[in-house]
């Protein structure tokens, strides 16, 4: 099945062991779905404009940091907004399976740091077991970092089956990209493009170069409004 928004939320409630875990992880997924949705809308507006269709300036700039001019490149096809949103809502389901402290006693929700890299593949398997379509389950599998290659997995000895964990379409790529602008930090925070670039640079120049390609392709989301809505800081 391809879940709708209500079914996606029901899956969160099913696997969340506490209200605190649900609030942290589900809220993160909702935020990423908003960033990803706006990113797709801007990309689709650029596509329609390139096809000679009339597009309002507001469509080209909606949810973008640079309000002066449209940002991002023109995709070669219209992206599926509904698939992107549901994929974003479910991309972090695996984090419920690697909790260290679920916060049920009023403590801070924390994760098993050494296992965090596994949350994508765990979420992928969880979703498949729930009967979720492969096209949606892959959003969980393929969103870590800016894409993990088989070579990286083997070279770094990561606790994952040797394989490529890279988006197979632009919808998955949008969610992977959007995911870098918010963190389930304690407390949760929005992450500026500059900070995200520094984080990616820690893993080498090739990683940073892939990040720069994504920024050029999709533009930078405007985070101030969302940060205000959720009472979180942008760092």
From TrEMBL:
Pfam families, alphabetized: HD
InterPro entries (alphabetical): HD/PDEase_dom, HD_domain
HD domain: residues covered: 78-182
SUPFAM superfamilies, A to Z: HD-domain/PDEase-like (SSF109604)
CDD domains assigned: HDc
Endpoints of the signal sequence: none
Superkingdom assignment: Bacteria
Annotated coiled-coil segments of the chain: none
Protein name in the entry: HD domain-containing protein
């Amino acid at each position: 099945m391809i879940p709708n928004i209500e079914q996606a939320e029901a899956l969160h409630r099913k696997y969340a062991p506490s209200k605190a875990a649900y609030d942290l992880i589900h809220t993160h997924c909702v935020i990423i779905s908003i960033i990803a949705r706006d990113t797709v809308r801007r990309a689709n507006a650029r596509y329609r404009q390139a096809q000679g269709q009339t597009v309002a300036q507001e469509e080209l700039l909606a949810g973008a940091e640079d309000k002066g001019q449209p940002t991002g490149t023109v995709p070669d096809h219209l992206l599926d907004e509904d698939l992107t949103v549901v994929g974003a809502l479910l991309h972090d389901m695996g984090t419920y399976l690697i909790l260290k402290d679920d916060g049920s006693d009023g403590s801070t929700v924390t994760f098993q740091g050494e296992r965090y890299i596994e949350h994508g593949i765990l979420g992928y398997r969880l979703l498949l077991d729930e009967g979720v379509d492969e096209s949606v389950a892959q959003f969980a599998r393929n969103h870590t970092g800016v894409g993990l290659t088989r070579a990286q997995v083997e070279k770094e000895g990561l606790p994952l089956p040797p394989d490529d964990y890279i988006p197979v379409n632009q919808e998955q790529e949008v969610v992977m990209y959007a995911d870098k602008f918010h963190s389930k930090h304690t407390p949760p925070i929005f992450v500026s493009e500059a900070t995200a670039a520094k984080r990616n640079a820690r893993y080498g120049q090739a990683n940073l170069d892939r990040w720069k390609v994504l920024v050029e392709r999709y533009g930078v989301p405007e985070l101030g409004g969302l940060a205000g809505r959720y009472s979180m800081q942008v760092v």
